[in-house]
Amino acid sequence: MAEKRPLILITNDDGITAPGIRALIKAITPLGEVVVVAPDAPQSGMGHAITVNDTLYCEQVTIDQGSKITEFSCSGTPADCIKIGVNEVLDRRPDLVVSGINHGSNASINVIYSGTMSAAVEAGTMGIPAIGFSLLDFGYNADFSHLLAPVQQITRQCLKSGLPKGVVLNVNFPKIDHAPLKGIRVCRQADAHWVEKFDKRTSPMGRSYYWLSGEFVNLDQGEDTDQWALDHGYISIVPVQYDLTAHHAIAQINQWPL
Amino acid sequence: MAEKRPLILITNDDGITAPGIRALIKAITPLGEVVVVAPDAPQSGMGHAITVNDTLYCEQVTIDQGSKITEFSCSGTPADCIKIGVNEVLDRRPDLVVSGINHGSNASINVIYSGTMSAAVEAGTMGIPAIGFSLLDFGYNADFSHLLAPVQQITRQCLKSGLPKGVVLNVNFPKIDHAPLKGIRVCRQADAHWVEKFDKRTSPMGRSYYWLSGEFVNLDQGEDTDQWALDHGYISIVPVQYDLTAHHAIAQINQWPL
Questions:
Q1: A49 phi, psi to nearest 5 deg
Q2: What is the tens place of the pLDDT at every residue in A7-51?
Q3: What distance in Å separates the CA atoms of residue A248 and residue A254, rounded to the nearest whole number?
Q4: CA separation for the pair A105, A230 (Å, rounded)
Q5: Which of residues 137-166 of B touch A (CB under 8 A)?
Q6: B69 at A interface, C-beta within 8 A
Q7: Is residue A45 classed as helix, strand or coil in its secondary structure?
Q8: What's residue B47's pLDDT?
Q9: Residue to test with chain B: of A50, A114, A182, most B Cβ within 10 A
């Protein structure tokens, strides 16, 4: 009896036509049966947004002529795509969800703003193993070709080993120009943050408005962080959990005279 | 020399006119100098979304005639409100951020979808102590009057004690009908999830669309969870962190032959 090929659901947050997801589809297709449910428009910075007060469209589309991949374009967020993909589109439970390849970093504190990772986390809450992939290059002409092998390697291993309960993977690739990737590091999230600057302008109608324009500041000197790995040419893998409880702080808050 | 009153920035995710934030402003005003920067429209389910590809408006408004509170209405998300509030609106760093009172639960897994909590987390990443408050009642005519005292009690204590680095508080109030609150419990986030149902309909133009409509499923039997506390008439406080690293999983993933 032939072994059933794993069912792999693919999404992203840059929209279904973004080069990053097209590269991811190419990398993942040899590993199983692939179905794509991805946003119909860019959703960067959407965090774990879901559509609760509006309707959702989700319709089958053909992006690449001649492609045999089943693809759906969804009007919602990355997390919506996972919810509707698993519950409405697929006829069986997927064995894995992969999200990306994001155009831009989701390392360090960026994980909390990441639509790419929110899709992976959403799958995780359903008990489905999931990986978010990101490349530290915002360009739409970014080169993804050298990422196909490591994406396949990490995905194959995840299909084989599974993931601990409540854990999904946040994989980031350094931006490299013809230098070979140095390898893979399993890391913790660097303790960095954004220092915001707002660019204040005036509209033609005389109304003030702002552009958000921040600077990433990493004060974490640890060599076990994702940011260190990426700065030194390594692929970073951070196991991410959605139990946000600061367990170490419970005892301290319990001392409060409430 | 008079002691400087603490500066407290208030936001929410239901919009600046929602009864929940009006109740929160009433509770917090006696405790310090209050400035409100809140979304101009409901932002429920927005998670940690930020506005990266669009402009932001942020303009001073008067919601309650005769009010002496300085208030700004912002076109962005709750996280945007914190970024622009701290960096553009306020002339000094706030001593505390409070968000809410949300109309609906942010306990258990709801924390990852919560705009209310994303505002608190955003403040946390800046090193500012922060609390998100939520009431388990979606109604716009929900009764917040009995919450003023516990909101003040928890906020006063937080101003006095501060919070551990990297930690903010997720406070949920049970929906009670004239029963007294039983007290306050410091808890961990219950391991619950949503089982989604999609209500598929057809538009007048003949196009299929969906409404997301899930059911909350709590399989966590622990009596140390927020869901248990709320189900038994207690106020729950969960210390929440934005280091999402599943530290316990690093060793296991490191065993992978990558």
A1: -65, 145
A2: 999 999 999 999 999 999 999 999 999 999 999 998 877 777 888
A3: 11
A4: 10
A5: 153-154, 157, 161, 163-164, 166
A6: no
A7: coil
A8: 76
A9: A50
Is the CB of B52 less than 8 angstroms away from the CB of A212? yes
- Whether B178 has a pLDDT exceeding 80, the answer reads no
Cβ atoms of A90 and A32 within 8 Å: the answer is no
The SS3 call for residue B180 is: coil
B45 reaches A (C-beta below 8 A): yes
Ramachandran area for residue A183 (φ above 0: left; ψ -120 to 50: alpha; else beta): left
Tell if the CB–CB gap between A188 and B254 is shorter than 8 Å. no
- Select the residue from B112, B140, B158 to test the A interface by mutation, using most A Cβ atoms within 10 A: B112
Task: List pLDDT tens digits, range A218-257.
Answer: 999 999 999 999 999 999 999 999 999 999 999 999 999 9
Length of chain B: 258
Q: What is the CATH number of domain A7-191+221-243?
A: 3.40.1210.10
Helices and strands counted in chain A (H then E): 6, 11
Of A45, A56, A109, the CB nearest to B125: A109
Average pLDDT, chain A: 94
The whole-angstrom separation of Cα A39 and Cα A15 is 5
Report the C-alpha dihedral over residues B234, B179, B29, B87, rounded to 10 degrees. 40
Taking the C-alpha atoms of residue B143 and residue B16, their distance in angstroms, rounded to an integer, is: 18
Residue A14 tokens, joined: 């840059």
Report the interhelical angle of B148-161 vs B19-28 (nearest 10°).
Answer: 50
% of chain B exceeding 90 in pLDDT: 84
CA dist., res. A50 & res. B113, Å (int): 7
> Quick one: pLDDT band at residue B51, thresholds 50, 70, 90?
confident
Q: How sure is the predictor about A2, in pLDDT bands with cuts at 50, 70 and 90? A: low
Please give the pLDDT value at position A178: 67
Instruction: Please state which CATH number belongs to domain B7-190+222-242.
Output: 3.40.1210.10
The answer for B178, left when phi > 0, alpha when psi is -120 to 50, beta otherwise, is left
Please, how many CA atoms are within 13 Å of residue A218, restricted to the half-sphere of its CB? 17
**What single DSSP character describes residue B56?**
B
Q: Count Cβ atoms within 10 A of the Cβ of residue A19 and give its class: 0-12 exposed, 13-18 middle, 19 or more buried.
A: middle
ipTM of the complex, rounded to two decimals:
0.93
Q: B256 to chain A: which residues are within 8 Å by CB?
A: 157, 161, 186
Measured in whole angstroms, the distance separating CA B94 from the mean position of its chain's CA atoms is 17
